[in-house]
């Protein structure tokens, strides 16, 4: 009987030969996504507003050939410069985001503009311009970082949740309209993740501990756990997946 030889190098999640741009790469999910993608062989283009933190991410990347571009995606001149310095992409992770926590009765135009400009309008315009400039290759993958806040309400989170629901809707349209070029579009929907976005905010550590108990897995997620899901959507392992929302929430939507 002929003995099969296992291919120890087989990895359907490999990103070898792929160039991937990650926005909001200076911390949290963006940083973890960039670092984990580099471990799987990708060439990274990372962008964020903070020079020092973006350099920290860049120093963590494995391999070579990576590019870092400091810029604000809500600034038209910065966006034009980022796009001009970006090579042809096999993957795009629209991850940059902010949150402003306020009860519905205190929502105002200034905060709405701030949240939607970063979480919704910036990634929409950025994606459009990358497509217009033909920077996204056929068979590429676009991943949007949305949130379970788009489908699961929590006190004070209306602006953030609405901005993420809007970007999820935009993802659906990208998936349908870009399918002819075999470009896929998907979103990840994390629950609460241990990032700077939740630390030092309006909610105390004691309140966070109580909130964790609502999760069936009794903890918040880690940035790399979202990064691994994003990598699945960037890789050829998900070649037949488009227009989907991948929920990464520790089971909170079960409650």
Descriptive notes:
With 255 residues, the protein is α/β, with parallel strands linked by helices. It has helices spanning 28-39, 51-60, 76-84, 109-132, 158-178, 205-212, 223-234; strands at 19-23, 43-48, 67-70, 89-94, 136-145, 184-190, 245-248. It has one domain (19-250): 3-Layer(aba) Sandwich (Rossmann fold), CATH 3.40.50.720. Helix content is 38%, strand content 16%. The radius of gyration is 18 Å and the shape is globular. It starts with 18 loop residues before the first strand and ends in a 7-residue tail after the last strand. 39% of the residues are buried.
Present the secondary structure layout.
Elements lengths: L18 E5 L4 H12 L3 E6 L2 H10 L6 E4 L5 H9 L4 E6 L14 H24 L3 E10 L12 H21 L5 E7 L14 H8 L10 H12 L10 E4 L7
Parallel strand pairs: 1-2, 1-4, 2-3, 4-5, 5-6, 6-7
Summarize the structure.
It contains seven helices and seven strands. The chain has helices at about 30-40, 50-60, 75-85, 110-130, 160-180, 205-210, 225-235, and strands spanning about 20-25, 45-50, 65-70, 90-95, 135-145, 185-190, 245-250.
CATH superfamily: NAD(P)-binding Rossmann-like Domain
- Which H/E pattern describes the elements? EHEHEHEHEHEHHE
- Domain count: the total is 1
Radius of gyration: 18 Å
Which residue ranges are poorly predicted, with pLDDT under 50 across at least 5 consecutive positions? none
Q: How much helix, percentage-wise, in residues?
A: 25-40%
Q: What is the tally of beta strands?
A: 7
* Helix-strand category: alpha/beta
- Measured between the Cα atoms of the first and last residue, the distance is 52 Å
Task: Please state how the strands of the largest beta sheet are arranged side by side.
Answer: 3-2-1-4-5-6-7
The CATH architecture can be named as: 3-Layer(aba) Sandwich
Mean pLDDT: 94
> What is the approximate shape?
globular
Count helical runs.
7
């Amino acid at each position: 009987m002929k003995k099969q030889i296992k291919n120890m190098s087989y990895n359907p999640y490999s990103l070898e030969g792929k160039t991937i741009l990650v926005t909001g790469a200076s911390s949290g999910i963006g940083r973890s996504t960039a670092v984990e993608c580099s471990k799987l062989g990708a060439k990274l283009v990372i962008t964020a507003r903070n020079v020092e933190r973006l350099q920290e991410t860049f120093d963590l990347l494995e391999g070579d050939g990576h590019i870092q571009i400091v810029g604000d995606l809500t600034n038209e001149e910065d966006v034009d410069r980022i796009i001009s310095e970006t090579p042809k992409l096999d993957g795009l992770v629209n991850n940059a985001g902010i949150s402003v926590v306020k009860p519905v009765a205190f929502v105002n135009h200034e905060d709405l503009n701030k949240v939607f400009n970063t979480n919704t309008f910036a990634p929409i315009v950025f994606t459009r311009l990358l497509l217009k400039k033909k920077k996204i290759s056929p068979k590429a993958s676009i991943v949007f970082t949305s949130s379970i806040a788009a489908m699961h309400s929590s006190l004070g989170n209306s602006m953030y949740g609405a901005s993420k629901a809007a970007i999820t809707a935009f993802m659906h349209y990208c998936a349908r309209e870009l399918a002819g070029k075999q470009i896929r579009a998907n979103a990840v929907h994390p629950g609460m993740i241990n990032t700077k976005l939740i630390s030092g905010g309006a909610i105390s550590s004691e309140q966070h501990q109580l909130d964790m108990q609502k999760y069936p897995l009794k903890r918040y997620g880690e940035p790399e756990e979202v990064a691994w899901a994003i990598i699945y959507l960037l890789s050829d392992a998900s070649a037949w997946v488009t227009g989907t929302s991948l929920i990464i929430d520790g089971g909170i939507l079960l409650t």
